[in-house]
Design a protein that fits this description.
The complex is a heterodimer of chains A (523) and B (942).
Chain A (H helix, E strand, L loop, with lengths): L1 H17 L2 H4 L8 H6 L9 H25 L12 E5 L14 H14 L3 E7 H7 L3 H12 L3 E7 L12 H9 L4 E3 L5 E6 L14 H15 L8 E6 L31 H13 L36 H29 L5 E5 L13 H6 L10 H10 L2 E5 L8 H14 L3 E4 L8 H12 L5 E6 L4 H4 L4 H15 L30
Parallel strand pairs in A: 1-2, 1-10, 2-3, 3-6, 6-7, 7-8, 8-9, 9-10
Antiparallel strand pairs in A: 4-5
Helix pairs in contact in A: 1-4, 9-11, 11-13, 13-14, 15-17
Chain B lengths: L72 H4 L4 E25 L8 E8 L5 E9 L20 E3 L3 E5 L1 E4 L6 E10 L4 E10 L4 E3 L6 E4 L7 H4 L33 H6 L10 E23 L5 E8 L6 E7 L17 E4 L3 E5 L1 E2 L6 E8 L4 E9 L2 E3 L6 E4 L7 H11 L23 H4 L3 H4 L2 H5 L13 H16 L4 H28 L8 H7 L16 E3 L11 H6 L2 H7 L3 E3 L27 H13 L3 E6 L8 E2 L5 E3 L41 H17 L4 E4 L7 H11 L3 E4 L7 E2 L2 E2 L4 H13 L5 E3 L1 H12 L16 H4 L4 E4 L19 H8 L5 E5 H4 L4 H13 L8 E6 L4 E5 L3 E5 L13 E7 L2 E6 L1
Parallel strand pairs in B: 21-22, 21-32, 22-23, 23-26, 26-27, 27-30, 30-31, 31-32
Antiparallel strand pairs in B: 1-2, 1-11, 2-7, 3-5, 3-8, 4-5, 6-7, 8-9, 8-10, 11-12, 12-17, 13-15, 13-18, 14-15, 16-17, 18-19, 18-20, 24-25, 28-29, 33-34, 34-35, 35-37, 36-37
Helix pairs in contact in B: 8-9, 14-15, 15-16
Classes of the chains: A alpha/beta (523), B alpha+beta (942).
Chain lengths: 523, 942
């Protein structure tokens, strides 16, 4: 048994290095360096044991040095000749609420499979709540180690919100403060508290045992930086800052229960005491004190269409009135300034490190063809048919040298919105990464959609993160599609003389027919 | 674990007279190993067939030419072996055993508070107990870690809720057989309410539990536990006050449980104090083993120069019948060989021979010698073990070439080595394995080194399988690694690197499979199954619109029905017939005044005098349907409405009648009609003004109209026309307001095609329909256009494999959301005199055999009911009704091949469509034909 384990590990680490990039066409050509250093061992030994030893020795140095070479050149602007780097998201509950590693064996096998396939790295979600409550980074560090051992890069997502499923908490001091003062949470018109994250209006109030939320965020970033010092810049190449609900820059405007994506317009989240006070102040400053008494009274509810109530109507809706413009500027401004402040803290903490910073925006495509685009408005993007709301967002990202992550690259809808966001980023020189929305609807169509986005002529994506590893991901219905996708991405990016000759080419045996766009529905 | 089993290739049954044969007159043959044809092994093992020298008999039988009897084994012993091949025969075998569960006081205990739970199993295997406990103060059935003092030493914690402890081998003093056992000691004062466990067999990865339920040893009889006993949970081992044990285990009849508990009894004897009773229980289990036997077939020279001797030798237990023939040239057509035939041979159907092999006297297995003509190019055969078990060579017939004699020095060398192989055998292989193809390393090179070569045949025999199951060996990994090494040193050699790539890919596959199996089995899995979510959703208000689930729909009109002007009265003459056919719902044509005679261009919604008849006739018709127990659906057109008047620009956009709307009721993006409403929430219907459902007054008016139809006419539900034109959320609004018994929407858009052929995967298409149903909040069903489309392709092109999706489920909406799918094969638009998308002609009954046996709510088109299909349709409907198939029935696809599709529904009905052959397997159930016709057949259980 002991021997078996060792053998497997040796195999796993040996392969990515000992196996030159071009034979499979998967890996970044820079790794070829490893080959030169192992030639000295002469013809391969016949005996299995000797062979094993040879490989193990051979792998040690080359991998590390390849890492260094690559990282030094990494934070430059995207070079078009370089293939898009593909990452795979690890399960949200990789580290459970109790700071235990879930399914570590499966992740270990999964990491090796991904490495062999030529995936660039993985994305590790780190929960503020889990890390602060335990005060112990060891579980997350173990995962980072596993990724490094598998020869994979790591993107790290620092989530400052709570997750419903799997259930991941906010830190205990936050919970305590919230219990004492529920107004620290976002609140909708009917008074429902949203437990996802802290209201943007309390960020500078010393509500967390004398600290402000901003200070707490900074402390968390610092703690991460210290704990992962060994990895940052080598294994860890990117840090993603969660800017709001679901880790995206937005208000929690989606329905508090039920499934995402929802089909309605969502609701404004400005009804906690502090948001209302801020609105009141803003109204008074702008000379219309009466506008600051509450949020829009004629907006629909979460799951209604824009035409319920008067606020979002295409013609003569309140959103077009001076009041509407006033409210929406304030509401979206709060989101922008929250994003800006959090990103500047992040760049203060991580700025001098050889990692890229990034943050995610939501892709709120529903109702994008109406004039008022209500789903975007309620989430905090003042983007209507006569106002480009992403201009300011891109500017904010540019200012903080932050890469923007656009999710939903797998969706058949939303192209218009994606290209609007991409345009804004292009104008401001913001780099882009892509993500898919959900594996639940994966199928061949989805992968070709993703490819279309990545390979588009004007594409500025420099990485793509596929969410996310789990049983579904490795299922016989899904996995062959994913491998095919990764392979096809690698093939297309290679120079023609890098592609194996005709008879050397190999197609993956797909024993599963494309499919599994499953929308599971119960009877 | 080795992948290869070496078998003694030549089994030697005892000779009656070992030394009684005179020496052959023929010059003694070389005692060197015989040459044999070395064939490149692909998933077969090749071995030589000689025996160690010292045992080699020095005798030669006399085999005279012209002897018409088949030779005896002894006679051929020394005949030169021309070819030999060993086939691995894998088949499954059920092994039965017992799980014993005992709870008694620990021996050395004075206070009597120490108890011991013993779980044992007498089946071979690597058993592990996967267990947890629940504590007193906990609600629900969650598992927890047992307290540390309860954990046996070699236990492994599984997250924070379970523990795994391997069972230890002990020899049972009673039966003298091996037992695997585990003891769990605990103190009765520990606050444990129950111990839960499942048994896991590590080698097969099999879990032993009951239909997903855990074993449960309850240590309390508090009333709150009464759900366990009451049988609602269906399973539990209950050592309560009555020492009652209830168990439903993998094999319930084997349970030695003495009493069946009942909720009442136990409740009566509920004791408020904890009281643990001693008990002991044995439960029969069965385990499927994959057994590997082998069959060695050798071709030998016969002294009869025209013949060759084929020797069969197998270790398969029991009777083995070789079902065989010869083939000539290269064709694999079976021909009966010329006589003489071996003893115990029958000619089967004038095509093949069936020869019963003779049992070996000294060991398990049997053997046989067949004489065949030298001219035959080979022998083809399959093996029959019993009526139900046939063995073939991975899907094809076994084939042994008779070929020509050949020899070469390298082969002799190989032969020599092979003789030194150990002959140890292992006949049971209980692992699922993933074997990969590793091409033989350069034989010619390595053959020069006997030591080296002794391992090479093993390597070369690794078989190729795409089996997804896990288990790998280090050997294989080494093999891959060696190839990797080879590759990197000889890069550029096409073939080699291809092999290496293959190996890497296999390795990737294996890792992925491993990850999959662990992820899948980790219980608090995060992967969301919407189905669970749906089930756990609180039953909101039971919304109307979806009926009882047993509906069978009849479309009560066609495109021509308006022609007579009195359709309502014509149809009312047929109500009794429709009812007796078994229909429960009828869909009537659109009732409103309409610009087009068929009714789909409505004008005044409140004017119900149409080309189908007057409003009074409609009411009478509805009444007469109700009298025969048929519900009635009204065809309502909500997407568009024709205007009465022109506006000042001459555009027809002013409505009259009771609903005198103006251009504000028309969507803004409908340029022809100058609408002033909001933008459309769906697709546009171009021939008439599209209604803007976002307007409150429009929705209010429409709801009122629907309620009026319900009340005034007596409609029970709706067929909603062109629902692509507006948001499903509005439909939900309408359904909730009008509360129909049943509602179905027509969401018809095109399927996806590539180069003129329909794509196999129509998930995007059905997704759109499901999305619509979702938007209505499930209040309405939708016509399953996807299923119709797939049936078209499958039937037209003889591509019945299309009828199973990647998950092995029906590929239409019915595979995803059966209770909301209304399956149909034709309607007034697709067929009738319009024929926009007609069902493949002549194959309609196959379509009906499919939809009338499958889940979903089937709809039958009027034209088909009143046609020569009437009788066949009626038969299918009665099969559906008799077997109580409903829209949520489970379906198991048993075959989806080029020319035949077959499925079992609810395990009560089996159906096949397509020209290919299919019979449902006889098992515990016996099937009788319930309906049949051209290229379809339906069975039900008798």
């Amino acid at each position: 048994m002991e021997l078996g384990v060792m053998t497997k590990q040796a195999a796993a680490v040996a392969k990515p290095a000992a196996f030159p990039a071009r034979s499979l066409g998967f890996r970044n050509p820079i790794r070829v360096g490893s080959r030169a250093s192992r030639i000295g061992f002469g013809p391969p030994a016949r005996g299995a044991l000797r062979r094993r030893a040879a490989i193990r020795i051979a792998r040690q140095r080359p991998v590390r040095s390849a890492v260094l070479v690559e990282e030094n050149s990494s934070p430059a602007m995207k070079n078009k000749a370089e293939p898009v780097r593909i990452f795979v998201g690890l399960p949200l509950d990789t580290v459970s609420a109790g700071n235990e590693i879930n399914h570590s064996k499966a992740i270990a096998a999964g990491l090796r499979a991904l490495a062999l396939l030529g995936v660039h790295g993985v994305d590790l979600p780190i929960s503020w709540g889990v890390a602060s409550n335990s005060g112990d980074w060891s579980s997350y560090l173990t995962i980072a180690n596993m990724a490094r051992d598998a020869g994979l890069r790591l993107r790290v997502s620092l989530h400052l919100h709570a997750d419903r499923r799997p259930s991941l908490p906010l830190p205990q001091p936050v919970d305590r403060a919230v219990a004492a003062n529920p107004d620290l949470l976002f609140t909708d018109r009917s008074g429902r508290r949203r437990p996802d994250c802290l209201s943007f209006a309390v960020e500078d109030l010393p509500v967390l045992d004398g600290k402000t939320p901003m200070e707490a965020y900074e402390e968390f970033f610092q703690s991460f930086r210290v704990a992962f010092a060994d990895f940052i810049g080598s294994t860890i190449t990117n840090i993603t800052i969660g800017l709001g609900a679901n880790g995206e820059l937005c208000y929690p405007s989606f329905p508090p229960t039920g499934d995402n994506p929802f089909t309605g317009v969502g609701e404004f989240q400005c009804y906690d005491k502090y948001m209302l006070a801020d609105l009141k102040r803003y109204a008074e400053e702008s000379g219309n004190p009466l506008w600051g008494l509450s949020g829009p009274h004629d907006a629909p509810e979460y799951n209604q269409s824009p035409y319920f109530g008067n606020f979002f109507k295409d013609h003569g809706g309140s959103w077009e009135t001076p009041y509407g413009q006033f409210f929406l500027s304030w509401y979206s401004g709060k989101l922008l300034s929250h994003g800006d402040r959090l990103l500047s803290i992040a760049s203060k903490v991580f700025g001098n490190l050889p990692v890229t910073l990034s943050a995610k925006v939501p892709l709120l495509h529903q109702w994008h063809n109406t004039r008022s685009r209500p789903a975007e408005l309620t989430a905090g993007f003042f983007n209507t048919d006569d106002r480009d709301g992403y201009e300011a967002v891109a500017q904010m990202f540019a200012k903080n040298s932050c890469t923007m992550i656009i999710p939903g690259m797998d969706l058949a809808v939303g192209d218009q919105l994606v290209s609007q966001i991409m345009q804004a980023c292009k104008r401001h020189g913001v780099r882009l990464s892509g993500e898919n929305s959900s594996i639940i609807i994966a199928g061949t169509a989805v992968f070709s959609k993703i490819k279309e986005h990545i390979l588009a002529n004007n594409s500025v994506l420099d990485s793509f993160t596929y969410q996310r590893m789990g049983a579904e991901f490795f299922s016989p219905e899904h996995w062959p599609l994913f491998t095919q996708f990764v392979r096809s991405m690698a093939q297309q990016q290679m120079d023609s003389d890098d592609v194996p000759s005709k008879d050397g080419r190999l197609s993956l045996r797909m024993n599963s027919v494309p499919g599994n766009d499953r929308e599971l529905q119960a009877v | 674990m080795s992948l290869v089993r070496w078998k003694p290739v030549l089994h030697r049954p005892p000779r009656e007279n070992p030394n009684g044969f005179p020496r052959s007159r023929c010059p003694p043959r070389s005692q060197l190993p015989r040459p044999f044809c070395y064939r490149k092994p692909v998933s077969r093992s090749v071995s030589c067939s000689t025996l160690p020298k010292d045992q080699r008999p020095r005798v030669r039988p006399i085999v005279r030419a012209g002897v018409t009897q088949t030779p005896s084994l002894a006679e051929v012993e020394d005949a030169e072996v021309l070819f030999s091949e060993t086939f691995q025969l894998k088949h499954s075998q059920t092994v039965e055993g017992k799980i014993a569960v005992r709870l008694n006081p620990a021996e050395a205990d004075e206070n009597g508070t120490k108890w011991r739970l013993t779980v044992g199993c007498n089946l071979e295997g690597k058993w592990t107990l996967h267990w947890g406990v629940s504590y007193f103060d906990e609600i629900g059935s969650e598992w927890d870690q047992p307290p540390p003092e309860m954990r046996p030493p070699d236990s492994v914690l599984i997250k924070d809720y379970a523990i795994e402890t391997p069972l230890k081998k002990v020899s049972s003093p009673l039966e003298g057989q091996m037992l695997h056992e585990i003891h769990i000691d605990f103190d009765s004062n520990t606050p444990i309410a129950a111990i839960h466990f499942v048994l896991k067999e590590e080698e097969t990865g099999a879990w032993f539990q009951h239909k997903g339920r855990d074993f449960r040893i309850s240590l309390t009889d508090y009333p709150k536990e009464d759900n366990v006993v009451g049988g609602r949970r269906g399973f539990g081992i209950w050592p309560g006050a009555l020492n009652q044990i209830s168990s439903l285990l993998p094999k319930a009849e084997g349970s030695s449980s003495k009493q069946k508990d009942s909720a009442g009894e136990v409740r009566d004897t509920m004791i408020q104090n904890r009281h643990i009773s001693q008990f002991s229980e044995e439960i029969s289990i069965s385990k499927q083993l994959l057994v590997t036997n082998s069959m060695t077939v050798s071709v030998r020279k016969s002294d009869d120069t025209d013949k060759k001797i084929i020797q069969f030798d197998t270790d398969l237990p029991g009777d083995v019948i070789v079902h065989w023939g010869v083939c000539t040239n290269d064709g694999r057509k079976w021909v009966i060989p010329s006589t003489p035939h071996p003893p115990t041979t029958k000619i089967f159907r004038q095509k093949v021979l069936q020869t019963l092999l003779q049992p070996k006297a000294d060991s398990i297995g049997s053997w046989g010698l067949f004489l065949v003509d030298k001219e035959s190019s080979g022998v083809v055969f399959v093996l029959k073990l019993n009526e139900y078990t046939w063995l073939n060579n991975m899907g094809t017939d076994f084939y042994v070439p008779i070929g020509r004699e050949s020899s070469s020095t390298t082969e002799i060398a190989l032969d020599n080595i092979a003789r030194e192989q150990p002959t140890g055998t292992e006949t049971q292989d209980v692992r699922n394995r993933l074997n990969i193809l590793v091409p033989p390393p350069n034989e010619s090179l390595e053959a020069t080194d006997p030591k080296e070569i002794s391992t090479s045949p093993i390597k070369s025999q690794v078989t190729l399988r795409t089996d997804k199951a896990v288990a790998y060996t280090d050997e294989i990994i080494n093999e891959i690694r060696s190839l990797v090494t080879d590759i990197s040193s000889e890069r550029g050699q096409g073939a080699k690197s291809k092999e290496a790539q293959e190996s890497i890919l296999q390795e990737i596959e294996k890792l992925a499979a491993e990850a999959y199996s662990i992820f899948r089995s980790s219980i608090p899995s995060f992967v969301e199954h919407v189905s669970d979510v749906e089930i756990s959703k609180p039953a909101v208000k039971v919304c109307s619109g979806t009926g009882s689930g047993y509906e069978i729909l009849c479309q009560g009109f066609n495109w021509e029905s308006n022609k007579s002007g009195r359709w309502y009265s014509e149809l009312s003459a047929k109500t009794k017939e429709l009812s007796s056919l078994g229909f429960t719902v009828v869909w009537l044509p659109p009732p409103t005044e309409s610009v087009s005679p068929e009714g789909y261009m409505p004008k005044d919604l409140y004017n119900l005098n149409s080309r189908y008849g007057s409003m009074e006739e409609l009411k009478d018709l509805v009444k007469s349907f109700h009298e025969v127990g048929i519900k009635v659906l009204g065809d309502v057109v909500l997407n568009h409405r024709c205007a009465h008047y022109q506006n000042k620009d001459g555009v027809w956009n002013i409505f009259g009648g009771r609903l005198d709307w103006d251009e504000r009721a028309i969507v803004a993006d409908d340029p022809h009609f100058q609408g002033r409403g909001n933008k459309s929430s769906g697709d546009s219907f171009h021939a008439a003004p599209n209604i803007d459902h976002s307007q409150d007054f429009v929705r209010r008016d429409l709801k009122e109209w629907l309620c009026w139809l319900r009340k005034e006419i007596g409609y029970d539900g709706w067929r909603l026309d062109f629902v692509r034109g507006f948001w499903g959320g509005y439909v939900k609004d309408y359904i909730e307001a009008s509360e129909p018994y049943f509602a179905v929407g027509e969401y018809w858009d095109s399927l996806s095609y590539t180069y003129g052929a329909m794509d196999h995967n129509q998930d995007a298409h059905r997704q759109r329909i499901v999305d619509w149903i979702n938007a209505t909040n499930g209040t309405a069903g939708a016509f399953d256009v996807t299923t119709k489309g797939i049936l078209h392709s499958a039937l037209e092109r003889c591509e019945y494999w299309r009828l199973s999706d990647a998950d092995g489920k029906p590929p239409g909406v019915v595979g995803w959301w059966p209770s909301r799918a209304v399956t149909f094969i034709e309607n007034h638009d697709t067929g009738s005199t319009q024929g926009h998308w007609r069902f493949p002609s002549g194959k309609e009954m196959q379509g009906y055999a499919y939809i009338l046996t499958h889940p979903g709510t089937p709809a039958v088109f009027y034209d088909h009911i009143f046609s020569h299909y009437n009788h066949e349709i009626s038969k299918l409907i009665s099969v559906r009704n008799r077997n109580k198939i409903h829209c949520r029935s489970t379906v198991k696809i048993t075959k989806a091949e080029r020319d035949v599709y077959a499925a079992e529904i609810e395990e009560k009905v089996a159906v096949k469509i397509g020209p290919g052959f299919y019979e449902p397997p006889d098992g515990p159930k016996s099937w009788v034909v319930a309906a049949e016709g051209t290229d379809y057949k339906v069975w039900e259980t008798s």
